[in-house]
Write a structure and sequence with these properties.
Elements lengths: L1 H23 L8 E7 L4 H13 L6 E7 L4 H11 L8 E4 L2 E4 L3 H17 L5 H6 L11 H42 L1
Length: about 190
């Protein structure tokens, strides 16, 4: 019986820091990741990417897609292409943060999924398209993604320590309470 109680106590001590961190990083706390898809009329690849993304976002949290027609967004597209140094004039133009993809096929589908996953994993999203549309400052959106991810990983490492300590304290208090209850039950 003692071994079972101590096993449960040890399990609680190991699990509580992990569950405490999980609660603190709820996906609902972050700005939704927006995938901007610039399309043009009579574009088969544009239709394919719409079909793919409409299905893709059904089971995703904090992810939305905005479809914008090239005729309605000429100024935004021009500023975006100048900012990101895009030379091609092909569609669809898919923009996530400061990353972009042109066209849609199996390769761009994989890259799109990878980019969305990385942005959501590291929560380093900066909405470049909306900032361009609103004539806001875009300099911090243009930072190299590797540098942004390194900065976030460094911040996450510092962030883990307090939650780990809190988890240990909560775990220790739980152990004390459980041991006290067991001792009282034995008497």
């Amino acid at each position: 019986m003692k071994k079972l109680v101590y096993s449960i106590i040890m399990l609680l001590i190991m699990i509580l820091p992990i569950t405490t961190k999980a609660v603190a990083t709820n996906a609902d706390d972050f700005e939704p990741l927006t995938v901007f898809v610039f399309t043009k009329n009579n574009c088969q690849e544009c239709d394919k990417v719409k079909e793919y993304l409409d299905e893709y976002i059904k089971d995703k949290i904090n992810l939305k897609v905005e479809y914008l027609n090239n005729k309605d967004e000429k100024d935004t597209i021009k500023k975006l292409k100048d900012t990101l140094n895009i030379k091609q004039d092909n569609y669809p133009l898919i923009v996530i943060g400061s990353n972009y993809l042109i066209g849609f096929n199996d390769e761009t589908e994989k890259e799109l999924d990878k980019t969305i996953t990385e942005y959501q994993k590291h929560n380093v999203y900066c909405n470049l398209v909306t900032r361009i549309q609103n004539d806001e400052d875009i300099d911090n959106c243009l930072t190299n993604n590797k540098d942004i991810i390194k900065q976030v990983e460094y911040q996450e490492d510092n962030f883990n320590i307090p939650w780990f300590i809190i988890g240990i304290i909560v775990g220790f208090i739980s152990v004390v309470v459980i041991v006290t209850i067991i001792r009282k039950l034995k008497k």
